[in-house]
Design a protein that fits this description.
Cytochrome Bc1 Complex, Chain A, domain 1, six-stranded mixed sheet, alpha+beta, single chain, 4 domains
Length: 885
């Protein structure tokens, strides 16, 4: 639950869009940007923000505490994060696990995260449970007991999280770059803390921290959603009337001195791919230069046509991935450039990155680049408004960081005014070698000779930069389904609550259309679709979509393959032209095939670095030996390496057949216009005869089968898998309830293995239902010495489930949680479009979303026990382990 400052801080690229959208689409004055938002301060000092929004029957409640890891003393590093864990571990009137159970019983979810500058406790529930949600948040904040026994257990959980971070290459890279870039400022410490400081924390430490920082005047309560403002405010006053405390102490953080020389550090680990991070010191969020720096991050790495991506990926293919981000927290931040690449390309990558930075100073940015990034910012904000949770996070962030939500409006206006000259000046001011820290995470077996001296000399010889001169309507429920002349099934839903539109075209495909020799071919085809058509190159496609503030991508999974797109609705006609072109006229250029091949092979290598996923890759392979579901979606290194263009074209022709195509369109559109335009765009897509593939029957394992791999890591990862139900099997819904009851925060496995026994940071249960068959699985990551106990405990809980089923309370809570999460997941147009298209394709019906709550509600205790006995066969399963011997 802990996150880096740059990762948890809501990216302002998602925030300042709101103002731009309102300024350009609605004739508002500057002062009524927040017209429907109520802000007030209670007599005890608690800030309250309420945004009444009735577009969905959902309410988000968030408590923002203006204290994070940077406010800790060195000897208590990690206490803010541990405190966040403990706040949900029981209050004076709610026992261990009861908070999570009550939230899930109300169909919602609850969680928290810690950053450098703040800690956030957030929940979302159906609006009819607003009182319950508010009661839970207020109770946790005011009346947590910090039980010493629970603290001891939770410290073990956090230590497991620490171990997990040590095994994660991405986290290790960020930890290293922050430790080296900052020398005295507390941003150099990881939010999660260190093993010695975390393990030494006591209940007295927690109580002192609570008394010091968890006071009303240091907190902001944000409520966004389907509530009545006046009534909500009355409830808030009542729940927090006894909440008191002295003002927090003055924050004294050591000021980071200016960096005066290049810093380089290299770490070697047992990983597959090299990871590079470059960090330039930049000013905090309130500084005038933060605006051009935010725009600059989009120019450098904000999409396929951005400078670094185009130069290092498209043109020279030096990196596998590259990104840029301006982290501007409360104090001085970092401009981060990160990449994954092969070790032998590091020197070349550094030269090209610095060359592009020099180009920015010498030649500046173009007007087209500026407009593209500002339009992308606009669209990001519009999409962020689709959920109550997203809007609440925006409001909480601005209030906490700046002291007022008005900062949002001022910031947005300033972003719109950023000039080419300001960007050029910011580059010269901050992008200097003496202001740069470089961290390199190398595979321990890398043969390329790389050391700090080589990195330093490469950068210093490449840099010559000198200092610069001094809206919301209720969504419509009317859905139109039309079968076109060529067999395409078209589904259109008008939703005028936000000026966006999503298109989702899906075909039977994925793993079900592959063999062991062609594994990965469907995924390859899907990702080639946007890499060139008869009329457009890959870059031209990307530029057109970015100019519409949209996204376009191919996808492929276990059962299907297709294309999805989202853009501002005013660009529907232009977007449809590109969308239909990539489906109907892909050319599969040879040079793009080789580029994509390298990308996918790199991703396959990278899979092994993510140990939970790798554990289940091995499990699937064993459980579904003779079925396509046993193969990885990306394919195997040996198969992807051999694909020819003729193979790709043949697979495309086999999958992309009009009479099997489902196309859903959801958003701010006119359904009649959509049908007319779709019919015209796909009129040349002719029917053709194809035979669907056949698959073998999946049988349960003949016994208890073990698989896995030995890796010298900090944690052991364990997956247990059973053959499960198919999508059409009614037992699928019972197994979904079982998975929820076992693996949720208030579930049996979580409470028993994590809360009571402190065996793990992460434990979960899940179901993957498919066309022919499915899987029910359990996962846990634990310390190697806890492996046997963890497995024994999981099997004991599964045995109890088979014998006794679920209690009435567990059943009801799981039902509400599933339905609540499902309904909240359908707030955005893309989520709705994909849900309708996939369910129609899989013969569940596009309107399955309307029936799902009723089906879940109809499941009985007898259904649960029958399904458990049928699928959780404790004599026939596969167990996969990855970790030390």
């Amino acid at each position: 639950m802990c996150k880096k400052g740059g990762k948890t801080m809501v990216k302002r690229v998602n925030f300042y869009i709101i103002a731009l959208f309102l300024l350009f689409f609605i004739p508002l004055s500057a002062n009524n940007l927040c017209a429907r938002i109520t802000t007030t301060t209670l007599p005890n000092g608690l800030s309250v923000i309420i945004d009444e929004n009735h577009t969905s029957p959902v309410v988000a409640i968030q408590m923002w505490v203006k204290t994070g890891s940077a406010d800790e003393e060195p000897h208590e590093a990690g206490i803010a994060h541990v405190f966040e864990h403990m706040l949900f571990k029981g209050t004076e009137k709610r026992g261990i696990g009861q908070i999570a159970r009550e939230v899930e019983a109300a169909g919602g979810y609850i969680n928290a995260f810690t950053s450098f500058d703040y800690t956030v406790y957030h929940l979302a529930v159906a609006s009819r449970y607003f009182h319950k949600g508010l009661d839970i948040i207020s109770d946790a904040i005011q009346h947590s007991t910090f039980d010493p026994k629970e603290l001891k257990k939770e410290l073990e959980v956090v230590l497991e999280e620490l171990r997990m971070g040590e095994d994660d290459p991405g986290r290790k890279l960020y930890k290293t770059i922050f430790e080296k870039a900052y020398t005295v400022h507390p941003y150099r410490r990881p939010v999660i803390g260190y093993r010695d400081t975390v393990s030494s924390l006591t209940r007295d430490d927690m109580l002192r921290f609570f008394k010091k920082w968890y006071v009303p005047s240091n907190m902001t309560l944000v409520v966004v959603g389907d509530v009545d403002t006046e009534e909500a405010l009355r409830n808030i006053r009542e729940y927090f009337k006894d909440f008191t405390g002295s003002p927090p102490p003055e924050r004294v953080r050591p000021e980071e001195p200016p960096q005066d020389s290049l810093r380089v550090t290299i770490i070697k680990r047992d990983i597959k791919q090299t990871r590079l991070a470059m960090a330039f010191h930049i000013p905090p969020v309130t500084h005038e230069d933060s605006y051009p720096l935010d725009v600059l991050s989009g120019i450098l790495a904000g999409g396929v046509t951005s400078r670094l991506y185009k130069r290092l990926k498209l043109e020279k293919d030096i990196v596998h991935t590259i990104s840029a981000y301006a982290m501007t927290p409360r104090d001085g931040g970092l401009f981060l450039i990160t990449a994954t690449l092969d070790a032998e390309r590091v020197e070349e990558a550094l030269k090209e990155i610095t060359a592009e930075i020099e180009s920015l100073l010498q030649e500046g940015v173009t007007a087209e680049e500026l407009e593209r990034v500002k339009l992308a910012i606009e669209s990001d904000f519009v999409y962020a408004r689709e959920t109550m949770q997203g809007r609440a996070r925006q409001l909480g962030y601005y209030q906490t960081v700046s002291g007022s939500i008005e900062f949002e409006r001022n910031y947005l206006e300033r972003i719109r005014a950023v000039t080419q000259k300001e960007i050029r000046r910011a580059v010269a001011r901050y992008f200097k070698p003496e202001n740069l820290t470089v961290a390199l995470l190398l595979p321990s077996r890398a043969e390329t000779p790389i050391d700090e001296k080589l990195i330093s000399s490469t950068i210093l010889s490449s840099f010559t930069i000198k200092n610069a001169d001094t809206l919301a309507e209720q969504p419509a429920e009317d859905i139109k389904k039309v079968e076109l002349e060529n067999g395409i099934t078209l589904i259109v839903k008008e939703d005028h609550s936000n000026p966006t539109v999503a298109l989702y075209a899906v075909f039977p495909g994925g793993l079900l259309f592959e063999t062991k020799k062609t594994n990965g071919l469907s995924n390859f085809v899907a990702h080639m679709l946007t890499r060139g058509t008869k009329d457009m190159t890959r870059v031209e496609i990307a530029r057109k979509i970015e100019n519409m503030a949209g996204s376009l991508s191919g996808f492929s999974g276990r059962n299907s393959t297709g294309v999805s797109a989202v853009f501002l609705s005013r660009f529907f006609d232009e977007g449809l032209e590109v969308f239909s072109d990539v489906i109907l006229n892909p050319t599969f250029p040879e040079e793009e095939i080789e580029k994509l091949r390298r990308d996918i092979l790199a991703s396959i290598e990278r899979e092994e670095d993510y140990l939970p996923g790798y554990t289940f890759k091995l499990l699937y392979r064993e459980l579904f030996k003779k079925h396509p579901y046993g193969m990885p979606i990306l394919g195997e290194y040996t198969t992807v390496s051999t694909f020819k263009r003729s193979d790709i074209v043949a697979q495309y022709r086999k999958i992309f057949v009009p009479q099997r195509m489902i196309l859903s369109v959801v958003g701010d559109v006119d359904s009649e216009h959509v049908v007319e335009k779709i019919r015209a765009s796909f009129s040349g897509f002719k029917r053709k005869a194809v035979e669907p593939p056949e698959h073998g029957v999946v049988k349960k394992p003949k016994g208890r089968i073990s698989t896995g791999e030995v890796k010298q890591k900090e944690q052991t990862h364990i997956g247990i898998g059973f053959v499960g139900p198919s999508l059409k099997d009614r037992d699928r819904y019972a197994m979904e309830i079982i998975a929820e009851a076992l693996g949720s925060q208030g579930g049996r496995l979580f409470v028993e293995l994590r809360d009571k026994q402190s065996l793990a940071y992460s434990v979960s249960a899940f179901i993957r239902a498919g066309v022919d068959t499915g899987m029910f699985g359990v996962y846990i990551g634990c310390a190697p010495e806890k492996k046997k106990k963890a497995i024994k405990s999981i099997l004991r809980e599964l045995k109890k489930l088979r014998k006794y089923g679920l209690t009435a309370e567990e059943l009801e809570r799981a039902k509400r949680a599933l339905v609540g999460r499902y309904e909240m997941g359908l707030q955005g147009v893309k989520s709705q479009a994909s849900d309708m298209a996939l369910n129609e394709l899989l013969s569940l019906g596009y309107d399955h979303f309307k029936r799902y709550p009723e089906i879940i509600e109809s499941i009985t205790e007898d259904d649960i026990q029958r399904a458990a006995k049928r699928y959780i066969d404790l004599k026939r399963y596969v167990i996969s382990t990855v970790g030390p011997e």
